[in-house]
């Protein structure tokens, strides 16, 4: 009976965590560059049960042969195994803002070790050192003329330096070059490449960092990597709102079903304690 409590509780916890992930996806359906999180639920290994008994052997000494009689398998519940980001390209939204830019995936190789397709990101200077990465190209100019993201982090050039502009009268070419109003190239916007995006840790505000706080290599000149930058456009979130809402309702109903089973177990235990225990 008590094993049933644990099994049902594990199902409720897994569905609660899945609901939180789907809710976060829905909340960021309109966040530029946001990549939806995907979750996988897996069952714990089954427990094989056997009954221990003995068979008497008709001998002078009355020997008994110990035996194990298989009963069957007992499931031990489920758990949320992992959460991974869906790195599929989002659609482009035209904004007309001169400091907005979107990354457009053209060809990204598949990592042989993990089987995952590579991904590219804008490079940002992290305040704690090293670099952060994002797909959100909604940039602006700060008071000193530095190109920054919405949290005020410096956008880095291909050379790894903050990009400083005289004004926002710029043009960003398809190969990432930033051209000022006089036709001179100021910098090339920094783009990093990750052969396996699973090595990145997702943080708040659409930022990613390496798990070991390392630095990703540049996407420029990488074998098999081709991409373009789209000026005055933003990459939309790749959240499928309709599918997310359907999955959210499914997770809620699964949680509710586990809850009803838990209540049934509770009533059974109450009856066992209050009625059977009196006999």
TrEMBL record:
<dbReference type="InterPro" id="IPR020013">
    <property type="entry name" value="Flagellar_FlgE/F/G"/>
</dbReference>
<keyword id="KW-0418">Kinase</keyword>
<dbReference type="Pfam" id="PF22692">
    <property type="entry name" value="LlgE_F_G_D1"/>
</dbReference>
<feature type="domain" description="Flagellar basal body rod protein N-terminal">
    <location>
        <begin position="5"/>
        <end position="35"/>
    </location>
</feature>
<dbReference type="InterPro" id="IPR037925">
    <property type="entry name" value="FlgE/F/G-like"/>
</dbReference>
<dbReference type="InterPro" id="IPR019776">
    <property type="entry name" value="Flagellar_basal_body_rod_CS"/>
</dbReference>
<feature type="domain" description="Flagellar hook protein FlgE/F/G-like D1">
    <location>
        <begin position="117"/>
        <end position="178"/>
    </location>
</feature>
<protein>
    <submittedName>
        <fullName>Flagellar hook-basal body protein</fullName>
    </submittedName>
</protein>
<dbReference type="InterPro" id="IPR053967">
    <property type="entry name" value="LlgE_F_G-like_D1"/>
</dbReference>
<feature type="domain" description="Flagellar basal-body/hook protein C-terminal">
    <location>
        <begin position="233"/>
        <end position="274"/>
    </location>
</feature>
<keyword id="KW-0282">Flagellum</keyword>
<dbReference type="InterPro" id="IPR010930">
    <property type="entry name" value="Flg_bb/hook_C_dom"/>
</dbReference>
<dbReference type="GO" id="GO:0016301">
    <property type="term" value="F:kinase activity"/>
</dbReference>
<keyword id="KW-0808">Transferase</keyword>
<comment type="similarity">
    <text>Belongs to the flagella basal body rod proteins family.</text>
</comment>
<dbReference type="Pfam" id="PF00460">
    <property type="entry name" value="Flg_bb_rod"/>
</dbReference>
<keyword id="KW-0969">Cilium</keyword>
<dbReference type="InterPro" id="IPR001444">
    <property type="entry name" value="Flag_bb_rod_N"/>
</dbReference>
<dbReference type="Pfam" id="PF06429">
    <property type="entry name" value="Flg_bbr_C"/>
</dbReference>
<keyword id="KW-0966">Cell projection</keyword>
<keyword id="KW-0975">Bacterial flagellum</keyword>
């Amino acid at each position: 009976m008590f094993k049933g409590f644990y099994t049902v509780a594990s199902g409720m916890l897994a569905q609660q965590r899945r609901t939180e992930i789907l809710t976060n996806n829905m909340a960021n359906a309109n966040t530029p560059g946001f990549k939806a999180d995907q979750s996988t639920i897996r069952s714990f290994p089954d427990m094989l049960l056997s009954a221990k008994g003995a068979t008497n052997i008709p001998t002078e000494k009355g020997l008994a042969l110990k035996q194990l009689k298989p009963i069957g398998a007992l499931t031990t519940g489920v758990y949320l195994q992992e959460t991974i980001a869906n790195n599929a390209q989002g659609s482009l939204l035209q904004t007309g803002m001169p400091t907005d830019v979107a990354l457009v995936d053209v060809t990204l190789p598949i990592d042989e070790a993990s089987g995952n397709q590579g991904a590219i990101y804008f490079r940002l200077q992290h305040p704690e050192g090293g670099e952060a990465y994002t797909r959100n190209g909604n940039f602006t100019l700060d008071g000193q003329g530095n190109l920054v993201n919405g949290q005020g982090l410096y956008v880095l050039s291909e050379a790894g330096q903050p990009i400083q502009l005289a004004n926002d009268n710029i043009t960003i070419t398809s190969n990432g070059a930033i051209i000022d109003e006089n036709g001179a190239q100021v910098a090339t916007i920094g783009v990093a490449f990750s052969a396996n995006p699973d090595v990145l840790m997702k943080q708040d505000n659409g930022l990613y960092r390496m798990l070991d706080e390392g630095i990703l290599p540049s996407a420029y000149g990488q074998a098999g990597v081709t991409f373009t930058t789209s000026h005055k456009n933003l990459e939309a979130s790749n959240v499928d709102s309709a599918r997310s809402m359907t999955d959210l309702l499914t997770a809620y109903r699964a949680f509710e079903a586990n809850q009803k089973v838990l209540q049934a177990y509770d009533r059974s235990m109450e009856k066992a304690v209050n009625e059977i225990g009196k006999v």
